[in-house]
Amino acid sequence: MSKFTYNDIVCVKPTVTIWFDVPGFRKPGPRIGERAWVYSVTENEGRPFFRSGTIYGIEFEGGDSLEVHEDDLELIEAAG
């Protein structure tokens, strides 16, 4: 079961080691500690670099997006 769901507000932990900037967006880097909203939830199915587990697409205020492993995120506020 996933730790987070759509529209949860999360932040990237300072211990993050791997993230991917979503193509077509400015390259924001991990933006540690900033509020972001979960917009996608997928299981890692052999994607290189990410360990097994759930990968989340998160969007920051201003529209920058990243894909981050669930272990590298922290819940700020649950959706709804």
Order of helices and strands: EEEEEE
**Mind describing the biggest β-sheet?**
6 strands, antiparallel
Report the strand count: 6
Distance between the termini: 19 Å
Q: What number is the mean pLDDT? A: 86
What is the count of distinct domains? Answer: 1
| Helix share bin | under 10%
Query: Strands of the biggest beta sheet: in what spatial order?
Result: 2-5-4-3-1-6
Shape: globular
Q: What is the number of helices?
A: 0
- Estimated share of beta-strand residues: 35-45%
Rg on CA atoms, Å: 11 Å
Low-confidence stretches: none
Helix-and-strand structural type:
mainly beta
List the helices and strands and how they pair.
Layout: E1 9-12, E2 19-21, E3 36-43, E4 54-60, E5 65-69, E6 73-77
Antiparallel strand pairs: 1-3, 1-6, 2-5, 3-4, 4-5
Descriptive terms for the model:
80 residues; mainly beta; 6 strands
Task: Describe, in plain words, how this protein is organized in 3D.
- With 80 residues, this protein is an all-beta fold.
- The chain has one domain.
- Helix content is 0%, strand content 40%.
- A 6-stranded antiparallel beta sheet has the order 2-5-4-3-1-6, with no helix packed on it.
